[in-house]
Amino acid sequence: MPQFRTLDDLSLSLSLSLSGKRVLVRCDLNVPMKDGKVTDATRIERSAATLKELADKGARVVILSHFGRPKGKVAPEFSLKPLVGPLERALGRRVAFAGDCIGKAAEDVVAALRDGDVALLENLRFHDAEETNDRAFAAALARLGDIYVNDAFSCAHRAHASTEGLAHLLPAAAGRLMQEELDHLSAALEKPQRPVTALVGGAKVSTKLDLLGNLVTKVDRLVIGGGMANTFLFAQGIEVGKSLAERDLADTARAILEKAKTANCTIVLPVDAVVAGEFKAGAASSIVDVKAVPADRMILDVGPESVAAINRYLDSSKTLVWNGPLGAFETQPFDQGTVAVAKHAAALSKARKLLSVAGGGDTVAALAHAGAEDDFSYISTAGGAFLEWLEGKELPGVTALKR
Predict the structure, then answer these.
(1) In the chain, where are the structural domains located?
(2) Which is catalytic among the residues 116, 277, 384, 392?
(3) Hey, which of 242, 273, 370, 372 would disulfide with 299, CB 3.0 to 4.6 Å?
(4) Collapsed DSSP state (helix, strand, coil) of residue 33
(5) Is 43 annotated as catalytic?
(6) What pLDDT sits at residue 361?
(7) SS3 content of the chain, % helix, strand, coil (to 5)
(8) Is CATH 3.40.50.1980 the right assignment for the domain spanning 7-178?
(9) Do domains 7-178 and 192-390 have the same CATH topology?
């Protein structure tokens, strides 16, 4: 049983019939837009399951969301109004729109809803009280509803009025998207099938210190790739040429290696690398042992022996947590290592030999580039919240929903 309340609890534990109830649903509809049109409706489509379920049960659904960074001021370019059409297509029903998220404009639209109707309220961040978790603002939102559902895991690391404050003012639960995310993350790190392998890539160790420090205590193997791996190689006395490396963090890298040793976590670093004299598409490159990187070259990807070693670890793993690419995947030919490992992980996942959970902006893009995203067990669209979860931090929006 989940540690957090779900939609099922609303009708069971709380003895609430959803029919006729005004349900405030916090979604993350912060979607890419160009010229006033949505260019990627993934977040809208993923939010649809919860919204449809509530509407089908006769709830009067009121959608709350932020968009962009208007900094507490009304800014037409950050209006949620252009999302009405995409929402209507995703839900297969009409969506009313309110020109504000509190006050008379919102109250009138909500009052006009009938059972099964849906309304979208204007950008929460047009009020600076949203981000300061102002109690009066949360109370003004709460007056619009009888029940609160948080379906925005990607915002759960923020203690804002609509993600944390509201949960203390109304009967509250996680929506289906939030529930799915928490279930998969729990299965990957809290109660995983072992062995567990974590793959962490990216440019800088400095941005992922907390993540690495937490993971070495939770997983059996930690694969380190990308520019981060260069820092760890340098910390072990290996010269990395012109490669991106945070040489001033060598002591920190050694401390992480020592912590991993104490925790019986195997650290997996590249054994060979793809190097080039310059970082550009189609640059002349060669494969060298990591201990033989020429002084005038830079490491831009893991080599084939490293890929084979990582894939062998995946073959003997039950669970994989992936955050960050293994090389400079955006630029060919330095995408090959990431693509090869992603495809192998996807094949194991498709064969149900591996539970694979991935997240983070670069990761999602890298897996899409490899054509592997459809076969991973779960890909999180949450950026900061996914990272903070991996770092072992408490997420205010989740804590507020605990039983």
Answers:
(1) 7-178, 192-390
(2) 384
(3) 273
(4) strand
(5) yes
(6) 72
(7) 45, 20, 40
(8) no
(9) yes
Tens digits of residue pLDDT in 311-348: 999 999 999 999 999 999 999 999 999 999 999 999 99
Sheet of strand 118-121, all strands in order from the earlier edge strand to the far edge: 95-98, 118-121, 60-64, 22-26, 147-150, 172-174
CB 226, CB 326: distance < 8 Å: yes
The CA-atom distances, in angstroms, between 272 and each of 100, 286, 329 are 57, 10, 17
Q: Determine contact, residues 26/18, Cβ cutoff 8 Å.
A: no
The single residue of 43, 158, 218, 221 carrying the catalytic annotation is 43
Q: From the CB of residue 150, how many other CB atoms can be counted at a distance below 10 Å?
A: 31
This prediction has a pTM of: 0.86
Nearest C-alpha neighbor of 202 from the set 366, 389, 370, 391: 366
Q: Which of 361, 383, 392, 393 is catalytic?
A: 361
361 belongs to the catalytic site: yes
Residue 259 has pLDDT above 80, yes or no: yes
Read off the pLDDT of each residue in 140-158 and give the average, rounded to a whole number. Answer: 95
| Active site (annotated) includes residue 204 | yes
Of the candidates 97, 94, 87, 93, the one whose C-alpha atom is nearest the C-alpha of residue 45 is 87
Q: Which of 89, 143, 204, 242 is catalytic?
A: 204
Question: Rounded mean pLDDT of the chain?
Answer: 93
227 is catalytic: no
Is it true that the peptide bond before 333 is cis, omega within 30 degrees of 0?
Answer: yes
For 99-128, b/e burial (b = at least 16 CB within 10 A) is bbbbeeebeebbeebeebbbbbbbbbbbbe
What are the DSSP calls for 178-191, one per residue? Answer: HHHHHHHHIIIIIS
